[in-house]
Structure prediction request, 578 residues.
Amino acid sequence: MDNLSRNTKLGIFVFAGTFFFIVLLYFIGSKRNLFSSTIDVYARFYDAEGLMKGNSIRYSGINIGTVKNVAIENDSTVLVTMVIQKQVIKYIKKNSLASIGTDGLMGNKLVNITNVSEASETINEGDEFKTLKAISTAEMLKTLSVTNENVRLITDDLKKIASKVNNNNSLWNFLSDTVLGNNLKQAIVSIKLTGDRTAYIAGDFSKMLNDVRDGKGVLGALLVDTALSGKLNQSIVSIKMISSDLAVVSGDLSYITKKVKGGEGAVGTLLTDTEFVHNMNKSMANLNTGTQGFSENMEALKHSIFLRKYFKKKQKEKNPAAK
Amino acid sequence: MVPKVVYEFFDELGMISYFGWRFFKEGIKPRYEFREMIRQCYYVGYKSLGLVALTAFIMGLVITIQSRPTLVEFGAEDWLPKMVSVSLVREIAPVITALICAGKVGSGMSAELGAMKVTEQIDAMDVSGTNPFKYLVVTRVFATTFMVPLLVILADAISLYGGYLGCNIRGVVSWQLYWNQVYETLSYGDVLPSIIKTFFFGYAIGVIGCFKGYYTDKGTEGVGKSANAAVVLSSVMVFIIDLIAVQIIDILNLT
Prediction:
């Protein structure tokens, strides 16, 4: 009996030890998602920033998995294999972004999964997340120092502006002048009126344009009537032809004028040779005298015996009633 | 001329090594002493549990209370469970348990075997046809080798509970959060090497305790001497094994 109880005690002792060991191993394993059903997904980073196996994967601030492996893929990228619990994958989209962050200010590294607003399918085994370059503290501080410098310059300027405004009476007068305000109000009313009218005019104009588009009126016909435009085309072609003819004519004319000016030809001589004109005048005078003489001779001939009969007969034929 | 101390050191080292190897040689051979083995396991494991539990609980509590001020200085008070759990599981619980066992079990074995040796019971056993090494040494070494790791696991659990109480003396950490943080922090790389090394602790304690008892001479005076020597040597051995273990763990990168 004593022996049995001793054995029982030992059994309880061994059982307790083994039980606690298994519990310890189980809980550690479950924290690393060794026992829950999971899927593997991937992300490629330029910089792993010290991410290690076993670091957490977070989605909306909740741990949903662990980093399974971090391996250098080539000279510029690091392939991070992540294990994500199956029960949460229905919330995670394929186009989600992965970024490496830090738990707190100095805590462990972790991978943050962020959803983007665009719709997408949920992730599956073997999918790859797009990655975001994480903000490094050094870079942040660098930017912050630039920002600080800018803020300093801006505040300096603001200070100057403020002091100028304070020392300037005209601005205060401007701001405190009530008449000016009234005037401004009126001006705005006028502007509004003008605007209304402009709108009205614009309406008219638009109506007119509509009419034109519909082919109403001369302008409309011009723009819309295709037959008319054909005719117009023809006219223009004719005008063109005429003008080219005219050009030829005017060229000839200019040639003739040149010749005439140079004193060539009869007309030229006529226009330029003053002596010839004088002679001509003389000849004309002679001719005048000659004709007068001839006329007298003819009159005398009418009355001559030999020809009087003929003339009388002619007179009779011409005017039978004169007898 | 080799100094006598050096000669004695290597002589003893060689004898202990042979004694340790003999454990495997004799232990593998059939006719196993199950009944005696279970009795030894009961004494080593169950009977030591109270002492181990008390020291483990106190260590967990004390380490937590001691670590708090430093962490508060860094503003990292909520890291207390993480830090305490790692230091307890990796180092403090195994070593404290091993030292307690070395003191309680190692000295007891050494004294028991020493007394049997000086009263010539071992020789009588040999004459009566019972293999004294198999019956006395193999069972004891087996018991320490397998009971010490179990004690360490229970010590881990109890010391972590002590840590939980320690966290809640000044601050507030809920039961759930505490264990969550503990399991979050611990990895197999923390737990398994620290458990594996305790098998070596137990083996060393058993072998040294039995060796010192088995080769006791100079009558009853020698019994006290060998008990004392067993405790000192096995305690030192625990630390030496710990040193070797931490090197191996570091080389294998099991952190």
User: Anything to note?
Assistant: Residues 135-165 of chain A form one domain. Chain A touches chain B at residues 6-7, 9-10, 13-14, 16-18, 20-21, 24-25, 27-32, 54 (CB under 8 Å).
